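Researcher: Next sequence.
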Amino acid sequence: MATGATFTTRKLYTDAEESAIRAKRPVTLNGIGASITAQDLVDRAISLELPVIEDRREAAGLEAEFDRQHPALLGALLHLFAKALAILPSITIERDRRPRLIEFARLGCAVAEAMDRTADDFVGAFETMLT
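Model: Next structure:
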């Protein structure tokens, strides 16, 4: 998720009052090769390397299977996030291991613990991805 930005301008028909618009939005980049190379963006990105598709299927079959499993998938994700949000207040990351995306990293640690992993598993994987 983009961490947010603010656009400010004067309110209409005033000289002193300002109007501010704050926005956050997800950004997804897809590509076969390295999609991003600027270091600042690399430090703020979460890269996923997906396995090669071995079992090719038609879109209609995939959509039907997704529609069938959608309620269970959504329920599982909501259950996982509820557990992670309960764990989140107890998550701290050592000062020397805090990344630029510390809020994301804390949430990732909480999700890891909700999945019966350790916060260190997530921080280590996150550090590896950034190098």
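Model: The helical segments are 39-43, 59-87, 102-114, 119-130. The beta strands are 5-10, 18-23.
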